[in-house]
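Quality-control log, excerpt.
Job 1 of 2 completed; input and output follow.
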Amino acid sequence: MASLKERQALVSLVKEKKIVAILRGVKEEHVENLTEALLNGGISILEVTLNTPGALKMIKLLQEKYSGELAVGAGTVLTIQGVQDVIGAGGQFIVTPNFNSELVRFCDGNHIPVFPGAFTASEVVAAHEAGADIVKVFPAMPMGPGYIKALKGPLDHISLMPTGGVGLDNIGEFLKAGACSFGIGGELVNKKLIEEGNWVELTALAREYTSILK
């Protein structure tokens, strides 16, 4: 399991870099080229969802090949066993679509960075109090940046990561609304470009996101 220092460093990195690229349904044969394309575009934090075939194998591969260049974790983690499998594969952080208090407390007790999904103010506060490092507000759309701003009013002590519907057209507004970071899937990890092997265009797309946040 992670040390407190490692946990704090990873959470600081997510807040600094801001974008967590979500790899859902990406084929193993494409993951290295995709990772290179994202790295070349300035994105160095990847979340491989556990409902992706071969997810643990991909996490292990990325951790071994890009150690020091890349932070890699897992998303769609639903159980404590899932957490243990991810950490065993070398994953550095856990993301969930929902708030599971037992899972969050397990991660917190073992210094594993955890970003659980929540939607209502009550869920956000409960996730934070259970030990979440950052709370993933999911789905962020169709509520939009105004919802993040409304949550941050009374809950400005809680770090929020909108996920689900964040794209080039609204990421700047989400940032202004108080988001500390973003989970971005298909809007960035574009399946069409991946299938075409258009890594140059994927790098260009990644650069568009990172340039907005500078």
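Job 2 of 2 completed; input and output follow.
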Amino acid sequence: MQVTSTQGPLEPKPKTVNGATYLRIPIKTHLIHIKEDINPLIKGSVMPLVKDGDWLAISEKFMSIAEGRVIHESVVRPGMLAKLLVKGVTKHKDDIGYSHPKKMQVAIMQAGYWRMVAAMLIGSLTRLFGRRGDFWRIAGHRVSEIDGFNPDAMPPFNEFAMLGPADPSKTSQELEDRFGLPCAIIDGNNINVEVLGMSAGLTLSAEQVREILLDNPMGQSDELTPMILVHKA
């Protein structure tokens, strides 16, 4: 994979949350290799910009690729359960979600066949009474963090499913210990943002971090901005 664009910071994207304005600075990178060491990227592209009080948000997908937690579509064969489950998932206009049978099959591989059957049966029942989300809670195993098989993603990663980072909180802390920069790993898209892990030096709550990044300033297409340096104006 080749470097496809100039690396470095882009124009800050300001956002005001609870009366405080935050400048979110997208950090443009090259398209990383699977299992590429991201420490040189942080050292060279992020650290020269850091001011007191700054913190770094890192994309879940970026970390998953760096950790090698990816599965190529060629090794995934969706079974009958996966094809049945996708019929009941919520469809989103701008996000593939779990409407792809191969992605659902990866979730079954992660959680186990019978656990997913139980999640389907119980989730369908409780949904009749207005409860939503039980399917994912029962499936567990962080299957809601699985991403990929998105035809709009940048090649070659449109051909991969990505499991969530192995231990987002631990990785965030290791990066803070190395660089002295508080970090958060987030799962963001055009529908929602979730904070998967934070280092101890980040003084904001997970909900505050989520609110600051809720408009997904990293982008969802080919922006190549998997890291956001956040500065309180």
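Post-run check on job 2. Confidence is low (pLDDT under 50) at residues 1-6.
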